[in-house]
């Protein structure tokens, strides 16, 4: 059964006028239920991540400031959210969604989180709407429990996974692969184990040929026993924060290829949703829903 982490707190609104679209967290589960891709049984409600699991990735100094809302204003500005108890709690719950979805992925081959992909969170600071790095927390959790040994993080959000790259910089047990827009945020990029920086307006054919060439080779050389997939849909041409030129169909083919590869190679995969900022919410929902539809079609 496809298990999907979702908690009502995911929908918590930001102050009026904030440009980060929270509406998709509300509309996506509704769409999946409405069209019959999922039933209520597919969803599970995560709880608070245990502090010890967060501290395997983030420094206690940073985490305590976050929790107590005592980060300095400059650090808060970098996150881009006005911090509140609820928004911090939201990220702590999202990380638990990723942990539990990782365990479900071991059982069923795949599992997802209707949020997460908070890859701009470093070990000691937040950034770009991210406070805690959910997939990094999931990876260290699995390794700590001896549930995975070598982990591959495939980050196909249009923005570089700078926080993830920093966290695993000196950790050969987690291979970080980021394919992103060259001229996009973050402007100062970190070094992942493999970075592919794409030119503006990169089209479906160029994007897919690079991905289809690289991913199988990576799996062959790294031999991961678990994979995280950050399936942001901000690679689509209409995205207001992305600069690439993919179509919704091209984005779906990207997801199909990644998920089919995991299935064929028997590598459990956990998917976090990541970005998607097209002005037309219908396009965002359609592109994200495609990932869930494919998961159902290919695995169950
Ligand atoms: Zn993004």
CATH topology-level name: Arginase, Chain A
CATH class: Alpha Beta
For the record, the CATH architecture stands as 3-Layer(aba) Sandwich
Specify the helix fraction band: 40-55%
Total of DSSP H or I helical runs spanning 4+ residues: 10
> Please, what is the average pLDDT?
96
Strand count, sense and barrel status of the largest sheet are: 8 strands, parallel
CATH H-level superfamily: Histone deacetylase domain
Bound molecules: zinc ion
Number of domains: 1
Total count of strands: 8
Shape: globular
The low-confidence runs, each spanning 5 or more residues with pLDDT under 50, are none
List the strand order in the largest sheet. Answer: 2-1-3-8-7-4-5-6
| Fraction in beta strands | 5-15%
Rg (CA only): 17 Å
Structural class: alpha/beta
Assembly state of the chains shown? single chain
Order of helices and strands: EHEHHHHEHEHEEHEHEH
Distance between the termini: 7 Å
Structure description:
With about 300 residues, the chain is of the alpha/beta class. It has one domain (about 5-300): Histone deacetylase domain (Arginase, Chain A, 3-Layer(aba) Sandwich). The chain contains 10 helices and 8 strands. The protein has helices at about 25-35, 50-55, 60-65, 75-80, 85-110, 135-145, 160-165, 205-220, 250-265, 280-300, and strands at about 5, 45, 110-115, 150-155, 175-180, 195-200, 225-230, 270. The protein has an 8-stranded parallel sheet with strand order 2-1-3-8-7-4-5-6, sandwiched between helices. Helix 7 links the parallel strand 4 and strand 5 (about 175-180). Helix 5 packs across helix 6 and helix 9 (about 250-265) packs parallel to helix 10. The radius of gyration is 17 Å and the shape is globular. The N and C termini lie close together (about 5 Å). The model has no long low-confidence stretch (mean pLDDT about 95).
